[in-house]
Amino acid sequence: MNFTHLHTHSNFSFYDGAAPVNALARGARDAGMDAIALTDHDSLAGAVRFYQAALEAGVHPIIGVEFTVEPLRPDLADPDRPPHLLLLAEDNEGYANLCRLVTAARLGEARRESAFSAAYAQVDRDRPLLTQANLRRHASHLIALSGCRKRGEIPALLARKRFREAREVGERYLELFGLERFFLELHNHLLPRPHSRLRYRLADLAARLELDCVATNNVHYVDRASYRLQDVMVCMGALQTVDEPHPDRRPNAEFALKAPAEMAELFADQPEALANAARIAQRCTWELDLESFHFPAFDLERLRRLSSLPFGEAGHRAGLCRSSLPSSSWRGGTPFPPVPCVTADGSEDPSLRTATATTTASYRPPRADESTTSYLRRLCEDGASRLYGHLSGEVRTRLEHELAIIADKGLCDYFLIVWDIVRFAREQRIHCTGRGSAGDSLVSYVLGITHADPLAHDLLFERFLNPERRNMPDIDVDFDTRRRDEVTRYIYDTYGAERVAAVCTVNTFRARSAIREIGKALGFSEEEIGRIASLFPHIRAAGISEALERYPELRDAGVDLEGKRLLVELAQEISGFPRHLSVHVGGLLIGARPLTEMVPLELACKGIVIGQFDKDDVEALGLVKMDILALRIHSAIEDALDHIETRTGARPDLEALPLDDEPSYRLLRSTHTVGLFQLESPGQRNLLGRVQPTDFEDVIANNSLFRTDPVQADMIKH
Amino acid sequence: MIAMTKSIGEPIHTEGTRERCPRAFTWRGRRYQVLDTGGAWRLVGRWWEGDGERRFVRVLTDSGKTFDLCRYETTDQWHVYRVWD
Q: How far apart are CA A697 and CA A460, in angstroms?
């Protein structure tokens, strides 16, 4: 018996689905199915990890979304509970349409298109709603199923014996999708009459419209045992207790990932509906490209245009003629000489030099015939010449080695994008520093992205970018907290709002949040739940039992868990479940083409548009993520420089600070370092006292040692 | 015709019980032979208070009466849940 579940919710249907995507994929495999669909509510947030999990389990992944849609008969619909419509991607173009539709439903730009959507938005303006106009716009390459018993518009009308209206809705969807792409969805959840008769009414309507039916199970969990978790999640989402009724609560535990044989038994009298599920599954050929990178092209022409403008016209944002490269290395603190300002054709233009007292040309603009590869090389050679005086054998060899790997991996545009962002920041006098493994790269260094000389510190490039691995380089850059938004704005302006979005973070249930929310739903008082939850450290919910035995403060707190076994069990079951999406601390997604074709977008709080994919998903898809991080120490440094300048009339050049300043090391050895970035924690101060640094290498060692791994490995001995 | 029902909830002795439906049962001293079934359904009660799943089956008996029988997952005991007159 060949059967495929085409209506399946994971826990990315927040507060509704109780199945992790990998459990669904494994469950399908274990039940002998060769394919499975994921159809979360108004979301594709689980799509990438579902795809990966399905491939790992050896089952064919099918992607879809159960949309909340504007009703075709708004006069018979409840604005608080709009109908659902399930859409499956027939192919990759269908997937792109799903992304567009999720974005349209989530960003809500069409909310005021109809009286119904306006009324719906009044109930809660943040809830997603797919308007019929948007659906019509992107309905191609999609297969539509009529939705669940309670919320599908057709079944809901049939249940109310609105036969004529149900037929009218069916006809309109048939007109939109056609016979081959619209199916009436049948469920058999072993419900009492009259609910159990609904599938026969649906089959009857299908016969009248000459449509086909398809059997699904509206899966919300893998095993029946997860019924109670699913039920309590619905109560949590509805902010109510389990003692109260709610229309979204299911009456039994039949919404599991049933095996084909069980489904065959349930639909013994409608075998064609089962066969259609397999037939639809075979038609769905969605594939994610997890091999390629999708880098936006760096726009050399834009730089040429900007650099052909007089400095004033180039404008505040472009600011082409201020120093964008570090003026010294860590080695000797040698300020690099000002470079003549140049025009688009490479010739010197003295007028640019006089544009501002601090103006120095930071780079030569790209030539008309230059590619990004050759331009990156030229920028690197210019930067290396400034930093090292000349391209010695070692510098040249290392630079060639890195550039060859970068070019081979198709990363030239990526490096230019990062360089351009850092260039902008420097030109606007926004303090910034590259950090992390990018510091291992000479290219990053000579482009001014990082400040540490990888040759002087014997840093290995392959730690940053391994030619043997398909990994996206991760260049983190910290910016002055107060001015980080200017950098973000520059990126939006440069690449266009349709190609930029914040990366999301998937917030998950942890011990405290799980106890609080489940406890409330189970009817415990806020006071009691708050007291228990606050006793727990910030740990995974799965570790609650272990924590109760392990932590003395929990053991001795006299927590009465006798009547709370269920709470603990459910809290552990929900551990790691996604709770909501939020804005990543600094990650920005930059698309090679409009993001809505590749990434579903939604609106996070504060009105920030985020992609529904987190950083791991983005990396798997080969999309470009820039970490535009905010660092308060940059603000503090800026303030300090301002104060010094006000008092002395001179502004110190940070790049030129000597690294052998004995009073500084004396201060470090005294351990009076509160306020010193990365050297102020009690642990760091303790270590400083023992290391007694006398040169900069000691400071590096101090900082490197006080990391999680060395500390956990007990490498720091008294 | 309007069917009248009575909720009962009394345990019964069953014979030849398959998982889904007994072949016969004895209720209030009388034995009923199950001739046919008219649907099965399942409901979960107050699981947070320990209620398990209940499985229901509607049976037509040799007496001409229709019964809704119910089996509690936790006790595996069949009950007459409802009688249709």
A: 17
Tell me the sheet residues that pair with A36. A5, A61
Q: Which domain holds residue B51?
A: 5-84
Does any CB of chain B come closer than 8 Å to the CB of residue A563? no
Q: Is A579 helix (H, G, I), strand (E, B) or coil?
A: strand
The angle subtended at Cα A191 by Cα A190 and Cα A194, nearest 5°, is 135
Minimal Cα–Cα distance from B1 to chain A, Å?
A: 17
Strands ordered across the beta sheet of A142-145: A35-41, A60-68, A84-89, A142-145, A182-186, A212-215
C-beta neighbour count of A460 within 10 angstroms: 11
- Asked if A253 and B43 come within 8 Å (Cβ–Cβ), the reply is no
In a domain, A348, yes or no: yes
Q: Is residue A5 part of a domain?
A: no
Nearest CB partner across the interface for A193, out of B39, B47, B48 = B39
Q: Which of A139, A135, A155 is nearest to A147 (CA)?
A: A155
Looking at the fold, whether A251 and A370 belong to one and the same domain comes out as no
Residues of A in contact with B46 (CB under 8 A): 242
- Residue length of chain A: 718
pLDDT at A335 over 50: no
Q: Which pTM value belongs to this model?
A: 0.85
pLDDT band per the 50, 70, 90 thresholds, residue A536: confident
CB contact under 8 A, B42 and A254: yes
The answer to whether B44 contacts chain A (CB < 8 Å) is: yes
Chosen from B7, B19, B21, B44 to mutate, greatest number of chain A CBs within 10 A:
B44
Task: Give, to the nearest 10 degrees, the angle between helix A21-30 and helix A47-57.
Answer: 30
% residues pLDDT > 70 (chain A) = 89
B44 to A190: CB separation less than 8 angstroms, yes or no: no
Residue range A109-131, pLDDT digits in tens: 555 567 777 777 766 667 899 99
Asked if B43 and A566 come within 8 Å (Cβ–Cβ), the reply is no
How close is the nearest chain B Cα to the Cα of A156, in Å? 20
Cβ atoms of A547 and A554 within 8 Å: the answer is yes
Last residue of a domain, one of A552, A576, A600: A576
pLDDT above 50: residue A351: no
| Contact flag B41-A191 (C-beta cutoff 8 Å) | yes
**Domain count of the fold of chain A:** 4
Does A265 contact chain B (CB < 8 Å)? no
Going by their DSSP bridges, the two strands A624-631 and B5-11 should be labelled as: unpaired
Report the C-alpha gap between A235 and A15 in whole angstroms.
Answer: 8
Q: How confident is the model at residue B4 (pLDDT cuts 50, 70, 90)?
A: low
Residue of B nearest to A192 (CA): B41
Of B42, B48, B53, nearest to A242 by CB-CB distance is B48
pLDDT reported for residue A545: 79
Tokens for A51, please give them.
Answer: 């795809």
Number of domains in chain B: 1
Same domain, A359 and A227: no
Structural domain boundaries enclosing A117? 21-283
